[in-house]
Amino acid sequence: ETGVTQSPTHLIKTRGQQVTLRCSSQSGHNTVSWYQQALGQGPQFIFQYYREEENGRGNFPPRFSGLQFPNYSSELNVNALELDDSALYLCASRPQGREHGYTFGSGTRLTVV
Amino acid sequence: SQKIEQNSEALNIQEGKTATLTCNYTNYSPAYLQWYRQDPGRGPVFLLLIRENEKEKRKERLKVTFDTTLKQSLFHITASQPADSATYLCALENTGGFKTIFGAGTRLFVKA
Fold first, then answer.
1. Under 8 Å CB-to-CB from A31, ≥6 apart: which residues?
2. Is the Cβ of A30 closer than 8 Å to some Cβ of chain B?
3. B89–A105 CB contact, under 8 Å
4. pLDDT-flagged residues of chain A (< 50)
5. Which residue has the higher pLDDT, B84 or B31?
6. Measured between alpha carbons, how far is A18 from A14 in angstroms, rounded to an integer?
7. Nearest CA of chain B to the CA of A82: how many Å?
8. Do the Cβ atoms of A50 and A29 come closer than 8 Å?
9. Are residues A99 and B49, on separate chains, in Cβ contact within 8 Å?
10. Cβ contact A46:A58 at 8 Å
11. What is the predicted pLDDT for the residue at A68?
12. Which of A48, A90, A106 is closest, CB to CB, to B99?
């Protein structure tokens, strides 16, 4: 098992720019979720993908969008970056079936200046 | 709105004692409740999952209880060790399985 891999590990962007974060899910996992975690807070649910379709979304504006590819890897895109978007972005995957917990990556630390 | 509450203050205990962490929730009917451990700068690590129709689950030194009437879960670590020091997160998954929300976590410090 290779686990969940996220890239890049760190990123600095300017307000108003766009960013794409990438996630390679664990082998055999077809469900991917993305979370935003501010310092000292719990992960906030952004959205979930199952078999290339978004099937769940949290309270994030449309400028947060995503994709899941046939190999179940995933991208998180954020347009028109704001200073408050600075956070740790976590990708998590799990196999089909709800008796499983999520396997998380180590995250991408995004800083918006 | 849906809310998950965990002890906001850090929990300090002596090595060998049992640590008990609390997770309370409102305006939610989870089908599953999960506990994760998170170390600084790392992603959460899955520990245990308990279904809504289960009262208790155990795994090695870990025990989770789930009371859907009280809307509360308790997470116990017995014979705690300094290596257990971390932040512990409670997470609830909805009935449809398309949304899992997390609490803010409780920081646990185990002193030798």
1. A48, A49, A50, A93, A94, A95, A96
2. no
3. no
4. none
5. B84
6. 9
7. 22
8. no
9. yes
10. yes
11. 95
12. A48
DSSP state letter for A98: T
pLDDT at res. B94: 83
Q: Are B99 and B3 in contact (CB under 8 A)?
A: no
Residue B97 has pLDDT above 80, yes or no: no
d(CA B80, CA B63): 12
Cα dist. B32→A103, B53, B55, B89 in Å?
16, 9, 12, 14
Across the range B56-63, mean pLDDT stands at 97
Which chain A residues touch B43 with a CB distance below 8 Å? 4, 90, 92, 104-107
Q: How far is B101 from chain A (nearest CA, A)?
A: 6
pLDDT at A1: 56
